[in-house]
Amino acid sequence: MLEFEKVSKYYGKKAVLKNVSFSVKRGEIFGILGQSGAGKSTIGKLLLQMIKTTEGKILFEGKELKELSRREIQTVFQDPYSSLNPSLKIGQILEEPLLANGVKRKEERRKKVLETLKKVGLLESDAEKYPSELSGGQRQRVCIAGAIILSPKLIVCDEPIASLDLAIQEQILQLIYRINQEEGITFLFISHNLPAIYRIADRILLLYQGEVQEIQNTLDFFYHPNSEYGRQFLQNTKARENSLTKKAV
To answer: Which of 16, 54, 159, 182 yields a CA-CA distance of 20 to 30 A from 173?
Structure first.
């Protein structure tokens, strides 16, 4: 579904991605793991066409990104509050992408908004609230609603639980997993959070200083990392003790 072919990104002489190649299968949750500065978010920015590659090619269903409709790839960022217009009600925020994509009838937009709020575990009454009236977890649910409302094929989640407390993190992980299973949407889950990656990702790509260290099924990586850096990464973060518990999702 998604192919990165020898992709590099330079800012001047500094390489933030070096010869990165990987593929994402339709319907999977693909985790991108690495410490701060590893190049994780650069991959997300390239997919969202916020920046361009220096070298290499990115294909989505065999097409270059510039040939795609923007509705096919959506995103959920780390900070839900800054992602939402504070002057608009939640219903208005969620109607905007529908209006921009040709849904002109107010009744049809309203129906879609309420259906989507229900999918992400929010109430119809939340449509009449402003972002400031919601909790952090509720705001992130709104952001997820905004990402799925146009039925995209891929959602890029860039550290989507980093600003939330542990109990809410678990709820958001379960929501993402449920949407993946019920809607068939593919997810690119970018995180430095080992327990989160372990619990939700089907496969992972481990980055270090812009280079791919390994790509493995998630369980194989946590129990039998292939690379020396992978072994050090797990040991340094005490991943085995902290995250090898039964998946709740």
So the answer is: 16
